[in-house]
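Quick illustration, no need to memorize.
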Amino acid sequence: MVFYFTATGNSLFVAKKLDDNPISIPQTQSGSVFEDEYIGIVSPVYCGEIPKIVLNFLKNSKFKADYLYMILTYGKDDSDSAEFTYRQCKEFGLSFDFITTIKMVDNYLPAFDMNEEKKIDKKIEERLSEILLDLENKKRGISPATEAGRKLHKQVAVMNRLLPSLNNGSALKVTEKCTGCGICEKVCPIGNFTVTDKTARRTSKKCEFCLACIQNCPNGAIALKKEPRLKRFELNAVF
């Protein structure tokens, strides 16, 4: 049994390598009890942490498994995501036997160009083969972090406090290119888009900032607003 959350396809790609019929977290009723010999969670890492929707699913569900594992997908740096996620889950009584990470195409648009990212050979198939062998052998343990990784996570956390629009969805805008096709309605994991008068609109201030709406819009009608640069004293607080 494998559960996944995906916005742009990275985690779904991994989940399908683990199970022929992985289960979408946004389409699953949280609060349920899930039982199997192996239970896996595949999730992206956003700024060193799993998305809120994944964390809430884990908090509100019960898992009965001989072996509970998590695979975290990331694009540039996994910082201390495995350690941090393990501690997060332990706080509400969920203990993973194994957590590891895999480097994928980086789709964090404020910082990376998807076209350039796709040109980079990140040895995905090789890493997947290693992970599959680890799971077959029921490897236990949490991928350790470096001090540099832990520091990076803290730096990004400060950056997010200084520029919350980069993660709360307020940086998203629907432009005049919108034709009201409704793709954003279908791909948003929290149902935060609705089409009225042939134009897509956000229905609330909630957002996972997964960027599925931007990545999947066929007309490029959803974009990111240009954010102000941080002042020097603010940058000093980060770095």
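The beta strands are 2-4, 23-24, 33-44, 62-74, 98-103, 141-142, 172-174, 193-196, 199-202, 222-224.
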